[in-house]
Amino acid sequence: MPGRAYSALRERLADVSGVVMLIGASETGKTTLAKLFTIDALDAGRTVAYIDGDVASTVAGPPGCVGVKFVGEPSDLDPSVAPAEMRFVGSTSPQGVVLPHVVAVASLVEAARSRSDLVIVDTSSVVGGVVGQTLKYHLWELTQPTLGVALQRGEELEPIIGMLRRFLSAKITTVEPPADAPHPSPTDRQVRQSDAFRTALSSPLQRWRVQTTVFAPTLPEEFDLDRLNGMLVGVQDDQGHCLGLGVIESTDGVLRVATHHGEEMRGLRLGSMRVDLETFDTQRVRLRQLIFGI
C-alpha cells in the first residue's frame, strides 16, 4: 500500500468511532489492514472488537463461521486464539447463504457495539455480481458503519461503492492495494481451505449419536438419512451460539456427529458443504436440494 495513502488513512481512522467496514476482493491486503487498524486502536487505548466476516478465513474461528474477538493485545488476533463468539454460516462462500451470512455478521456487530469503542468488520472477498452486491448492501444496511474502507484494483469495486453511496448514503474511502499483494492459485486456496478444516476438525474427534429432531432446518418425514453423510454442521448451544464444527456420519440409519463439542451440544445447524474427514476436501451442496430433492 502506498505509504502516503496509508498514513492518511491511519490518521483518519484515529478519530472514527462505531463500525468500520473493510471491503475488498481476495488478496488485496484487506485482512492485514483490518489487523493494523485494530492494533492502532489498541495503541490509542481504545476498546476494539474485530469481526471476521469472511467465511473462507480463519482469523476468528473456523471456516464457514463468522467470529468476533474483543482484542486486548495484538496476540489476540492470532488465528490460534479462539473468538469470543461465533455464528455458523455453513459455507466458505456466500453463494446460496447470503441471509445467514448477513444475520451472522449483523448479530455480532450488535453484540460488539455495547462493549467496544471501535468495531472493525473484515468482510467476505466476494465482491462481484449479484451475490457480492446483495451481500454488501444488506451488511451495510443492517450494521450502519461510520466509515467504509474499499481496497480496489482499478475500478473493480465501483458498482458496490456507487450502490452503497446512492441508496444508503455510505461514507467510503478508497485505497489501492499493495502492488506486491500475493496472488495464490486456485489450488493454493483449496489447500489452504483444506488445512483450515483439518485444524478445526483435528483428530481425535468424538462421535455422538444424534436424533433427527436436533437439526435445523427440520428434516421431513421419510427423509433418507444417508444423504446427510459427510455434511458439515454447526454445533449449537442453547443460546443460539455456534460452539464449533461437526461432520455427520450416517451408518445403517444411525446418525452420529463427529465433533469436539458434543458435551455442550443442544442442536445442529445444517451447512451447505460436505467435508471428507480423511482428505478434508469439500463439496458445495444446495441445502434445498439436499432436503427436498429440488
What distinguishing features does this structure have?
294 residues, alpha/beta, Rossmann fold, seven-stranded mixed β-sheet, 14 strands, globular
Provide a short characterization of the protein structure:
By secondary structure, the chain is an alpha/beta fold. It is 30% helix and 27% strand. Helix 3 runs parallel beside helix 4 (129-143) and helix 4 (129-143) runs parallel beside helix 5 (158-168).
Topology record:
Blueprint: H1 3-13, E1 18-24, H2 30-43, E2 48-53, E3 65-71, E4 85-88, H3 98-113, E5 118-123, H4 129-143, E6 147-151, H5 158-168, E7 172-175, H6 186-200, E8 206-210, E9 215-216, E10 231-236, E11 242-251, E12 254-259, E13 267-275, E14 282-284, H7 287-292
Parallel strand pairs: 1-5, 1-6, 2-5, 6-7, 9-13
Antiparallel strand pairs: 2-3, 3-4, 8-12, 10-11, 10-13, 11-12, 13-14
> So how many helices?
7
Please tell me what the overall shape is: globular
Flag low-confidence runs.
Answer: none
Identify the CATH class of the largest domain.
Alpha Beta
How would a textbook summarize the main sheet? 7 strands, mixed
Radius of gyration: 19 Å
Mean pLDDT: 92
CATH domain topology of the largest domain: Rossmann fold
- Please list the strands of the largest sheet in the order they lie side by side: 4-3-2-5-1-6-7
Instruction: Write down how many β-strands occur, each being a DSSP E stretch of 2 or more residues.
Output: 14
Distance between the termini: 47 Å
CATH 4th-level superfamily of the largest domain: P-loop containing nucleotide triphosphate hydrolases
Strand content is 25-35%
- Which structural class matches the secondary elements? alpha/beta
The CATH level-2 architecture of the largest domain is identified as 3-Layer(aba) Sandwich
Instruction: Give the SSE string.
Output: HEHEEEHEHEHEHEEEEEEEH
Structural domain count: 2
Helical proportion, percent range: 25-40%
